[in-house]
């Protein structure tokens, strides 16, 4: 019996990329994961995916795994910032910006407040505890 190659995902759509990033972040236990649909309030991206890592090692592992899975499926970020310092890593996929923060940097930059007019698509707002 021959072994089948894993099925390659089609990451040509923004939503497919967002789904893969969220799935990977969840699997790697990223904290306080959020996806903001910023198309209507931002001219340079469609989504911001924001999460927190619990240590510099955790931030690096989340970021590297997202890059690896996207690369395996034919999608590479156009820019990568901050992995070495591992306080705030940024993956720029053009339509999707992935931010992996330390607790301190996330509180300092507070992107959710800066982009508060954006629609939060993950987790759904009605799914969050009151």
The coarse overall form would be globular
What is the H/E order? HEEHEEEHHE
Which fold name is given in CATH as the topology?
Answer: Beta Polymerase, domain 2
Compute the gyration radius: what is it? 15 Å
Please, could you describe this protein's structure?
A 6-stranded mixed sheet has the order 3-4-5-2-1-6. With 130 residues, it is of the alpha+beta class. It has a single domain (14-124), classed as Beta Polymerase, domain 2 (2-Layer Sandwich). Strand 4 and strand 5 form a beta hairpin. The chain has helices at 14-27, 56-72, 103-109, 111-114, and strands at residues 31-37, 47-52, 79-81, 88-92, 96-101, 119-122.
Brief description of this entry?
α1 crosses α2. The chain is an alpha+beta fold and 130 residues long. The longest helix has 17 residues, at 56-72.
Compile the SSE list and pairings.
Elements: H1 14-27, E1 31-37, E2 47-52, H2 56-72, E3 79-81, E4 88-92, E5 96-101, H3 103-109, H4 111-114, E6 119-122
Parallel strand pairs: 2-5
Antiparallel strand pairs: 1-2, 1-6, 3-4, 4-5
Keywords summarizing the entry:
single chain, 130 residues, alpha+beta, Beta Polymerase, domain 2
């Amino acid at each position: 019996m021959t072994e089948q190659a894993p099925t390659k995902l089609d990451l040509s759509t923004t939503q497919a990329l967002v789904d893969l990033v969220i799935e990977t972040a969840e699997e790697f236990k990223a904290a306080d994961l959020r996806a903001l649909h910023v198309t209507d309030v931002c001219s340079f991206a469609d989504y911001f995916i924001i999460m927190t890592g619990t240590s510099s090692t955790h931030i690096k592992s989340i970021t590297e795994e997202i890059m690896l899975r996207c690369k395996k499926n034919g999608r590479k970020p156009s820019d990568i910032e901050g992995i070495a310092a591992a306080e705030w890593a940024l993956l720029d996929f053009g339509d999707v910006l992935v931010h992996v923060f330390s607790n301190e940097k996330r509180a300092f930059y507070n992107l959710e407040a800066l982009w508060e007019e954006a629609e939060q698509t993950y987790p759904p707002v009605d799914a969050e505890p009151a």
